[in-house]
Design goal:
Rossmann fold, single chain, nine-stranded mixed beta sheet, alpha/beta, 2 domains, six-stranded parallel beta sheet, 38% helix
């Protein structure tokens, strides 16, 4: 079986969030299970030169984009056993960033069509094209309208994965023919809520729709979570499934992690304390091994639950705790947490921005990891925190609900709360602090979390089962 994994970003070439990590780890896990899988993505100008040097030029082709014919260079590279196909067009992809351009609809229409046009030239005829988020959502649409009966394309199946339904690719109806090249009679497929909606069109056209956790799949039937697409998904619930993301246990492994001062595992947990001391020193916190450190590594956005943290922050600091936050985003949150470092010197650290190496040191040095999200399709940080022995405190939503069992239950690994309420969150933190004061019981909880399997091997098996059902192939 062969799977072509179409994505707008993938580690190590270009990454802006969780999709880039998934587009690296899942194909690698599929290949370990003897499934042929290649990643296809744009060749952005932000790709580092040391990676560009490893690319091999295959050929160039012409790609139709509505009435235009656009150049497309096809390059191949290999990384960690996975083959990447990178599609080049400097007019569309020689930009300062990956997203947020005025012509994103046209840029990703080109990419979606180029994925299909490139197939005869990459020596890889897929059984499944696995598309991800709105940037690739037109690929199932174009396949259905223009490619399904071409020689060699007849039996390809398409999968559409929703990583975060908040981002849909919504544009005015006027772009449908002139920019996207879709006939006017296709408007019922392309339109939602008075706009062209690329994600909605991909959901309609794909053979199978997945999202990144079982709870999030159920939540998408609710208008509060689905951003106007709940009715579409309810009517197509027969082809929607939730498959929980995993983490790359080679990248996130405290036993081999070169980004942390001292390596450790669940059998040498006492060495984690050395990472805590090093982190406290690095971020200007009081060096006290007995004070619990509460940490967050997150984008500073409202749906991450930061309003709850703001509301009870001073109450939290009345406890004997330290607080560390790594992230950037909304200015109001940057200013709030930056101000708290002055209000609570030696107890609060805010690192504005994001560097993976710093994130690793925070996972290794913290005791409690806080994720009070309003919405969280899957979340990777809580699984990474478990791996590094930092006990998660999470709200029961999306993938947080699927990965973190409360410590009050059999096989619990963290602390949970249900209502989107600041004092409920604080109550869950207090329960964690209560157990932290009992070192032997706390160690048992930490070890259980570290030994929980959240690898991609488990998730890859579920994807393979879905591919088999779609294609009828072993």
């Amino acid at each position: 079986m062969k799977v072509l994994f179409a994505t707008s970003e993938a580690y190590p070439y270009a990454v802006s969030g969780g999709l880039g990590d998934v587009a690296f780890a899942l194909p690698k896990a599929l290949r370990k299970r003897l499934v042929g899988c290649r990643v296809i993505m744009p060749l952005y100008s932000c790709i580092p030169e040391n990676l560009r040097c490893t690319m091999r030029f295959i050929t160039h082709i012409t790609v139709p984009v509505a009435w235009r014919s656009q150049y497309c260079g096809i390059f191949e590279a290999k990384y960690d056993g996975v083959t990447y196909i990178l599609l080049d067009n400097e007019f569309y992809f020689k930009r300062a960033g990956m997203y947020g351009e005025y012509d994103d609809a046209e840029r990703y229409a080109f990419f979606a069509r180029a994925v299909l046009e490139a197939i005869p030239y990459i020596d890889f005829w897929p059984d499944v094209i696995h598309c991800n988020d709105w940037q690739t959502a037109l690929t199932p649409v174009y396949y259905k309208f223009f490619y399904y009966n071409r020689p060699g394309y007849e039996n390809i199946k398409t999968v559409m994965t929703i990583h975060n339904i908040q981002y849909q690719g919504r544009y005015g109806l006027e772009i449908m023919e002139d920019v996207l090249g879709m006939p006017k009679w296709s408007q019922p497929l392309m339109e939602n809520d008075g706009d062209v909606n690329l994600l909605k069109a991909g959901i309609e056209a794909a053979n199978k729709v997945t999202t990144v956790s079982p709870t999030y799949a159920a939540e998408l039937m609710n208008p509060w979570f689905a951003y106007t697409l709940d009715n579409i998904l309810r009517n197509r619930s027969w082809k929607l499934t939730g498959i929980l993301n995993g983490i790359d246990t080679d990248v996130y492994n405290p036993e081999t992690d070169k980004e942390i001062p001292v390596q450790y595992n669940s059998k040498t947990l006492e060495k984690k304390a050395e990472n805590k001391t090093a982190m406290q020193k690095e971020f200007g916190l009081q060096q006290d091994p007995n004070v619990p450190v509460v940490a967050m590594v997150t984008r500073l956005a409202g749906h991450k639950g930061l309003e709850l943290v703001k509301y009870v922050f001073d109450d939290l600091m009345r406890r004997q705790v330290q607080f560390v936050l790594l992230g950037s985003g909304d200015k109001k949150y940057e200013e709030f947490f930056g101000g708290k470092t002055y209000q609570y010197p030696g107890r609060v650290a805010f690192i504005c921005g994001f560097k993976p190496a710093i994130a690793h040191r925070i996972y290794a040095g913290s005791d409690i990891f806080l994720m009070p999200s309003k919405q969280e399709p899957c979340g990777l940080s809580q699984m990474v925190a478990l791996r590094y022995g930092s006990v998660p405190v999470v709200r029961q939503t999306g993938g947080l609900n699927d990965t973190i069992v409360d410590a009050g239950e059999p096989n619990g690994v963290g602390y949970t709360f249900k209502s989107y309420n600041a004092h409920d969150m604080l109550g869950a933190i207090d329960r964690a602090l209560g157990l932290y004061a009992l070192p032997d019981q706390w160690k048992t909880l930490v070890v259980r979390g570290m030994e929980t399997d959240h690898s991609w091997d488990r998730s890859a098996g579920e994807y393979i089962k879905m591919y088999r059902e779609l294609t009828g192939k072993k």
